[in-house]
Structure formats: structure tokens, C-alpha cells
Amino acid sequence: MTAVAHDAAHDAAGVNIPAGSGAWAGLVVALVSAAAFGLSGAVAKPLLEAGWSAGAVVVARVGLGALVLALPALRALRGRWGLLAAHVPLVLGYAVLAVAVVQLAFFSAVRTIPVGVALLLEYLGPVLVVIWAWIVHGRRPDRLTWTGGAVALAGLALVLDLAGVGPMDMGGVAWALLAAVGLAGYFIMSADSSPLLPPVVLAAAGMAVGAVLLLVAGLVGVVPLAASSDTVAYAGVVVPVWVPILALGAVCGATAYATGIVASRRLGSRLASFVALSEVLFAMLFAWALLGELPRPVQVVGGVVVLGGVLVVRLGQAREQLREQTVTAGPGTAPAPRGAAPAATPPPARRAVPRARRGAWPR
Predict the structure, then answer these.
(1) Residues 223/212, Cβ–Cβ less than 8 Å
(2) Which of 60, 226, 246, 362 could bond 53 through an S-S bridge, CB–CB 3.0 to 4.6 Å?
(3) Do the Cβ atoms of 122 and 113 come closer than 8 Å?
(4) 89 Cβ contact partners less than 8 Å away, ≥ 6 residues apart
(5) Which residues partner with 281 through β-bridges?
(6) How far apart are CA 355 and CA 174, in angstroms?
(7) Cβ contact 133:15 at 8 Å
(8) Crossing angle between the packed helical segments 278-291 and 21-49, to the nearest 10 degrees
(9) Neighbour-count burial of 349, counting CB atoms closer than 10 A to its CB (0-12 exposed, 13-18 middle, 19+ buried)
(10) Global pTM?
């Protein structure tokens, strides 16, 4: 892969995690992606209050994000347009699931159910990633991974402070579950192990196609499109409307999606999807800093629980990887120390090949 150095090979779903320092670098990149995604709510809220529709905000976010990544993507391609053409199915799937479906389904859900409930249902996506890896690739998670996932989701429920939520509209619940499917698709396709397509190209092309799909959905009336030129305020500072739009495109769009692909390819889809739960924590912090919305004590406790759950998932995946290495090396074989060079493999013995008779057809 041209933009990401693999520490270990993984399958098409990216369910393996690399060993060594590369995994920790992947965690840092995943947190950067979660922070960039988490910023979007605090940036978009004043725009929505100023008369922007959710659909218009999303189109501006992914459309401008695609423009920001256009030049880096072109440089990464270096004229190899056939490389992009060979990955058209991946780009289309990414645009539909990871961009259009997630955005449309989530904003459709919050029209009839509380935002906190919609977020909790959407973040069932990491569980779907685990199930996908189990069914499709036969990688059954151990008890530690399931425990960490349950702990992380419980902490997420505390962060969203769902106490006192009344009866739910089943249509909104269905939309939120569809957003969870799109979120799972985002992590699975982001972790694609193609050695050729750079992450920045996938992010730019996916957002560009996704923006077109969302724009078409708005033009036919599926998603309302409305914008305003009024100024907006953050932490008491009034800024022109282009400032949050630029932040949405460059940070919440380009940076969030590009780093998310890099993190998923380094960590694998399962671990990256659980680390992404920290997006809700970053959203809470940015809402406090930019909008003055203070988190409740139960939300702070929930944040600690989420991080604990992610750590348990990380330990579970490390244990699974160690078990696979032991099985591969054979019973009684100790794993090689970190940093040790792999043992040399003797060359295979050469076989004598009988010379074919003149005029004889090879069999």
C-alpha cells in the first residue's frame, strides 16, 4: 500500500491487527479521526440554528472535503488512472455506504427519535463488524473481545445520558439501524487490504461520489437543501459563515475520512470501529469548548467506561493474534521476541526435471 506501511498482512476485511509500534501509531491516527468526526456536531449546530438544513451541511462537508483531497489524491495516483478504474466497485460501495447511507439514515433518524438514541443505535456498527468478520472470514472473537464491546457500548449509553427517554418511533429506529449498517461498511471498506489504492484516493473519490449522490437526493426532495449567509457564533466569537463551512470540509470531511481509512488499515476494522466510539467523547468536549454545553458527571463516567471497553477489545485482539501465531508456529514454540529478525528459511531442494524428447508435446 503506497500510503500505509503494514506491520503485518491482514485479510480483505482488515480484521487482523499489526504487531509492534505500528498498532500504537494506528491508535493515534484513529483518535485523530474520531476527534475530526466529533468536531462536526459542534461546528454544524450553529449553522443549523442559522437556517441551514442538515442535508446542505452534509453536502458542503463531503463536497468540500473531496476538493481538499483532490490534489493529494492526484499526486498519489501519478497518472495511474487505471488504478482508480480497477477499484470502481470499492469506491462506489464506499460512497454509498460510508458517506451517503450513514449521513442520510442518521439525519432521517433524528427527525423522529432523540439524537442520543440515534447515536447509540448507529454505534452498533462495531458489533456488526465483529459479526461480519466471524461469518465471512471465520474469525470468531473470544470472550474478552465480546466483553470489551459490551463495556464500551454501556459506557456510550452513559455518555449519551439516555435516562428518561420515552417510547421510540420504530421508523426512526429503523433509520438508525441502517446508519449502523453504513458505519460498519465504512470500517470494513476502509480496512481494505488492496496494496495499490492509496487511502487519500479512496477518501477523495468516495466523498466526491457521495456528495453527488446526496446532492441528487436533495434535488429530488429526499433530503431538504437550505442554506443561509448569516454569521454564526462560537464561544461568543462571531465569524462569517465560510469559516465553519471550511472547518467542516477540511477537518470534519477530508481529515476525518482520510485518517479513518489509514487507521482502519493499520488496526483492522474491528479495533478501529471500537476506537471510533471515542468520537462521542470528543463531540462532548468540543460542545463544551465551542458551545458552552457542559457535560454531566454521568457522561464523564461513561467516557472513562468507553475507553476501558476499547482497551479490553485491544487486549482481546492481541490475545487472538498471539494464539494464531502459536498455532502457526506449532505447539511448544515460543513466539519470537519483539524486534528479532525472522529465522532464515532454507531454500527448497531442486528437483531433477527430465528432459523432454525432441518433438514431443509437453504434458
Answers:
(1) no
(2) 226
(3) no
(4) none
(5) none
(6) 69
(7) yes
(8) 40
(9) exposed
(10) 0.69
